Amino acid sequence: MPRWSFTVVSQPESRPTTSSSIINKDRIMTATALHPKDNYRSIWMYLYNVPHEVKFIDAGGINTRYFVAGDKDAPPLVMLHGTASSFETFCANIPSHAKHFRIYAVDLVGNGFSDKPDVLYKAPVYVKHVKDFMAAIGLTRASFMGVSLGSFVAAKLALDSPAMVDKIVMASPFGRTLPEPTGEPTKLDDMRAARQRIVEDPSWDSIKSAFVPLIADEENRIDDLVAIRQAMYSLPGMVKTMANIWDTYEARVFNENALDEASLRAIQSETLIISCSDSEDEFLVNSKLYEDYIPNSVLVDIKKSSHWPHWEQPDEFNAVSLKFLTAGM
After folding, report:
1. CB neighbours (10 Å) of residue 25?
2. DSSP E strands: which ranges in the chain?
3. Which stretches of 26-174 are assigned E, i.e. beta strand?
4. pLDDT tens across 303-324, in order?
5. What pTM does this model have?
6. Per-residue DSSP letters for 180-227?
7. Hey, what domains does the chain have and what are their CATH numbers?
């Protein structure tokens, strides 16, 4: 619990200026919040002094939750989160990026607190939602920051409608063609089973376990992120929604829309790929292949991260991202 210290400061006695004055400010109490942990992290501590709005808008019939910040006339930057997540994942990136861009951080359809129709969440469903969202707020073109699933959606949008996509920042990129099933459980199978168990038991400890493969340092698996995820996973119908999200990762379904070598080579947007080499997994493999295949791409590696470099190492991530988005490769 925070410790609070109070200081009473005496002020010179003053006479009320009108007979109706009812407040006598001859003593003022000030409070200083002290916390036992240095560099205390919370969603609000990143956003408390950033002018912003959290809004809902109809995007092609989907009631869509989004966060907006930054000058209205600044270039637009759309932020797309990972699987079964929400826009809060970007709270450590919004303050620095909002100084240069008009930020739109979106809860993708089926995710966060946007609508969750009973459909399989294939890539075209997400791409249509982003296009409908952009149309609803009046955007014709934007740069994109995508984490994991968000990077896949941004890449698919760049292929589907290249005129709508300026630059792309990909963290822990996802979407590459999956190997055909061999009958043996895969890492994706394990992740799907784990996430389904969590949504069926959205207790605090259960929800917090979802962040273990995402965030390397336990200190960074903060209560704010757990609480938001718990609220999301406790929504009515979320068990079915989670199945709809993860059933699309079955190889035969997913590969209908996956990023093969030819499609990656067809992406024309300048692309920053951020890898996490301390976590040797399929996302690291993706990072290296995407750098090889996407023509206008550059790869930057961020250490001491697992899957969320934008949250785990925000100062380094923000500096690299802003340099790329404002000055190019």
Report:
1. 9
2. 3-10, 27-34, 52-59, 62-69, 76-80, 102-106, 142-147, 165-171, 271-275, 297-301
3. 27-34, 52-59, 62-69, 76-80, 102-106, 142-147, 165-171
4. 999 999 999 999 999 999 999 9
5. 0.87
6. PP-SS--HHHHHHHHHHHHHHS--HHHHHHTTTTT-SSGGGS-HHHHH
7. 3-34 (no CATH), 43-327 (3.40.50.1820)
